[in-house]
């Protein structure tokens, strides 16, 4: 493919991604993969160049653009070499016309910026869209961080994490045989901090209420030496089914998976009411803390979707609270930097549940900043995904 043809292909893919963002369709990675399958003539260099164009535009443009061309023109205005490829050549983009519309650039729309937690200022914005590193967590049931340092000597320890090891984002760590042997998992530092904040101990009964594919479940099993009974729940069958093979690979034997039917969660968990020493609720959210990895999420968030997330979070918090034994603890976690999903959600919970209290000092020294009844982690301040964490204690 010619350089101009690569640009035109990127424009067409951006059109599809913008439509999907507006309609709640597949994510950008899935759309890109499908587009490349339909263009088998594109070589590996072509695919890399097209992907670079697509994601450069997604990172630069603050909201779903009117067209892929408008998004690419916003880049071309700042890049003369890119603008020169709009020359009308065969298979390339048409010549740029006078007064042609451009997509707005920036971190996020003005309306979305107003929703950020007060701790997230302009100094944080660049880090929120920078490329993320690759964080690993040593599995204590199979290995240690010292062994990871031997396997990946180019990495570095992660502040406050005894099992955390950080690599450059482009590292293909999962292709190393140590991964197949269960010696480590890929897990962002923020997620590892959440597992630490839970404070699960040997002999505890733990419920992971929104387990997904089990990243935090496995971290808890590792931290407790496989000596805690863990119930991993989710309503997403496809995601939860990934947990069993991961647990087998990692040597975690005391995890029970429970697929919940949407709307019937409380009834299906009735036998567990008031019996869990620790509950973690990693609730569905806007994903605004993960824009480094999925920048098109900025294009997807609408007021209605945010309202649904906030309502679901409150229901899950109340359900999780019912599972906690008197004197036990509940960790609330969302990969969000939006105040309604963080500090405001915890304030509302404490108002609904008299006697419950928010714990302090739940994170390693220097990690996170106090945000109401919880703590906010951000890429700029903490070098990890944006995350809100709170640990709530039930009265005895």
Major pleated sheet: 9 strands, mixed
Q: Roughly how many Å apart are the termini?
A: 68 Å
Number of domains: 3
Give the mean pLDDT.
96
Q: State the helix count.
A: 18
According to DSSP, the number of beta strands is 13
Low-confidence stretches: none
**CATH homologous superfamily title of the largest domain:** Vaccinia Virus protein VP39
Measured by DSSP, the beta-strand proportion falls in 15-25%
Helix % is: 25-40%
Gross geometry: globular
- Helix-strand category: alpha/beta
Highest CATH level, the class of the largest domain: Alpha Beta
Report the CATH topology name of the largest domain. Rossmann fold
Salient structural properties:
single chain, 396 residues, Alpha-Beta Plaits, Rossmann fold, 3 domains, nine-stranded mixed beta sheet, four-stranded antiparallel beta sheet, 18 helices, 40% helix, 16% strand
What does this structure look like?
It is a single chain. The chain is α/β, with parallel strands linked by helices. The chain has three domains: 3-106; 134-186, 2-Layer Sandwich (Alpha-Beta Plaits), CATH 3.30.70; 192-393, Rossmann fold. It has 18 helices and 13 strands. It has helices at residues 3-23, 28-37, 44-60, 68-76, 80-83, 110-113, 122-129, 145-151, 177-180, 189-198, 215-223, 237-240, 243-250, 265-268, 297-300, 303-323, 343-352, 379-382, and strands spanning 134-138, 156-157, 164-167, 184-186, 205-208, 229-234, 255-259, 276-282, 324-334, 357-358, 369-371, 374-377, 387-393. The model has no long low-confidence stretch (mean pLDDT 96).
